[in-house]
Design a protein that fits this description.
This is Urease subunit beta. Pfam families: Urease_beta. The longest helix is centred in the middle third of the chain and has 4 residues, at about 65. By secondary structure, the protein is mainly β. The strands form 2 sheets. A 4-stranded antiparallel β-sheet has the order 3-1-6-4. The protein has a two-stranded antiparallel sheet with strand order 2-5. It has a domain at about 30-95: Ribbon (Urease, subunit B), CATH 2.10.150.10. It has one helix spanning about 65, and strands at about 30-40, 45, 60, 70, 80, 85-95.
C-alpha cells in the first residue's frame, strides 16, 4: 500500500502504512486452547501478558493446563469475559525464565 505524498514527495508525518495480509504473532510457538466460563456476576478482563492460571477465581477453566501460559493476543490488548458466558481462548507459553513476580493470586510460577 502506498502512502499519501506531500508536495515535496515525502510521506505524510504520522501516517501509518499497514502491511498487506495477516501478521502472525509468535510464529511457531506451541498453542493450547482452553474453554473458559465466567461464573461471576461481573465482567473480568485479562491482559495480554498476565499469567492466565492466576486470573480471577470467577473464571472457570483447567488452571493446571494453563499454568505457564498467557493469552495469544497482541501486546497491550486484553480479553473481556462476560458473566455467564463460555468462550474458548488460545494460550501461548510464557517465555524467558517463566517467572511472574508481583502477582498475588495462587499458583504463581516463581
Amino acid at each position: 500500500m502506498s502512502g499519501s505524498l506531500r508536495s515535496d514527495g515525502g510521506v505524510v508525518p504520522g501516517e501509518v502504512l499497514p502491511a498487506d495480509g495477516v501478521i502472525e504473532t509468535l510464529p511457531g510457538a506451541p498453542r493450547i486452547e482452553v474453554e473458559v466460563t465466567n461464573s461471576g456476576d461481573r465482567p473480568v478482563q485479562v491482559g495480554s501478558h498476565f499469567h492466565f492460571a492466576q486470573t480471577n477465581r470467577a473464571l472457570r477453566f483447567d488452571r493446571a493446563a494453563a499454568h505457564g501460559h498467557r493469552l495469544d493476543i497482541a501486546a497491550g490488548t486484553a480479553v473481556r469475559f462476560e458473566p455467564g458466558i463460555t468462550r474458548t481462548v488460545s494460550l501461548v507459553p510464557l517465555a524467558g525464565a517463566r517467572l511472574v513476580p508481583g502477582l498475588t493470586a495462587e499458583g504463581g510460577l516463581g
